[in-house]
Amino acid sequence: MIVRTCRAALLPLAVLLASAVWCGGAAAASLTIHAPEEAKQGSAVRVRVAVDEPLPRVAFTWLGKTIDAPTVAEGPDRVAEALLPVPVNASKDLIVQASAGALTGKATVRVLKVKWPEQQISVQKNYVNPPKETLKRIEGERKASAAAIGRVTPERHWRGPFVRPVPGVVTSAFGGKRMFNGEARSYHRGVDLRGAQGTPIKAMADGKVLIAQNMYFAGNTVYLDHGQGVISTYAHMSRLDVKPGESVKAGQQIGLVGATGRVTGPHLHLGVNILGVAVDPLSLVPQH
Ligand SMILES: [Zn+2]
Questions:
Q1: Does residue 187 contact residue 177 with C-beta atoms inside 8 Å?
Q2: Is the pLDDT of residue 110 over 90?
Q3: Gene3D superfamilies, alphabetically (predicted)?
Q4: From 161's CA, which of 133, 140, 181, 221 has a CA 20 to 30 Å away?
């Protein structure tokens, strides 16, 4: 869907009503939103906004949150892009609002429902109901994780397309409703990819290392900040090859596949959060 709006002050009402795509002559400034018409629950939506004035930033508002993205020159226009999350439980159409200077516009993205599978998992008992002495550690890690995935920095490090971190197939899909030893836990907030112990893991995109440490449930874990609220996470690694604060390039090795934390065998648990909302990481990776 392409929605173009013009600066209202320059236009008579009749022109505004007559057309959403014609802005009444070259003198009128305009803002054009390129967004998909529909998107699946749990996917990432890529939205582009073009302005024909030299405006340095575009603010994208989505789910009540705002990303303030810098524009880059593209022909006579300036363009900004954002990745936006569709929550797994989104039930109505979502609206992206964009504004730059005095220009504003909005577009609607229809949400397609997904039938999420149920996943039965058996793990050691101490990972379903962790021993009391580990609760403080788990709570600290939960807070650090929440702070990392909720981070929204204005710089954009990501450039599409995103890299698949290991070649292995999906062994446990994103979004499954999880039962651990028969007890209901929340849905699977990432995707599990098959990988033998020691398989190199690549960064999905350029970014900065926020976390590289051992965690109770996730084992050896890396969190990468790709900017503008896009965070990728890699869990259960056998080895960490990066340190917090380090910059990484798309495709750079950040560690090795392992079986640390709450797992039944070696694999990569891969997560992507955008504006703190979990989406299917593979919705960002080109499918061949
Ligand atoms: Zn997983």
A1: yes
A2: yes
A3: Glucose Permease (Domain IIA)
A4: 221
Give the range with max mean pLDDT: 66-70, 94-98, 130-134. Answer: 94-98
Calculate how far, in angstroms, residue 166's C-alpha sits from the geometric centre of ligand 1: 14
The pair phi, psi for residue 106, each rounded to 5°, is -150, 155
Strand 118-121 with 177-180, pairing: parallel
Of 81, 112, 143, the residue at which a domain comes to its end is: 112
For residue 133, give the 3-state DSSP assignment: helix
C-alpha 270 to ligand 1 mean position (Å):
7
pLDDT tens by residue, 243-260: 999 999 999 999 999 999
Instruction: Evaluate whether residue 68 is within a structural domain.
Output: yes
Tell me, in angstroms, the distance from the centre of ligand 1 to residue 169's CA: 13
Distance CA 106, CA 84 (A): 14
- Residue 176 Cα to ligand 1 midpoint, Å, equals 10
101 CA distance to ligand 1 middle (Å): 42
- From ligand 1's centre to the CA of 67, what distance in Å? 28
Distance (angstroms) between ligand 1 centre and the Cα of 138 equals 17
Q: Point out the domain boundary residue: 83, 112, 141.
A: 112
For the chain, what is the domain count? 2
Tell me how far the alpha carbon of residue 95 lies from the centroid of ligand 1, in angstroms.
30
Alpha-carbon torsion angle 17, 23, 24, 27, nearest 10: 150
- The stretch 214-235 carries a mean pLDDT of 96
- Say how many Å lie between the CA of residue 218 and the centre of ligand 1: 9
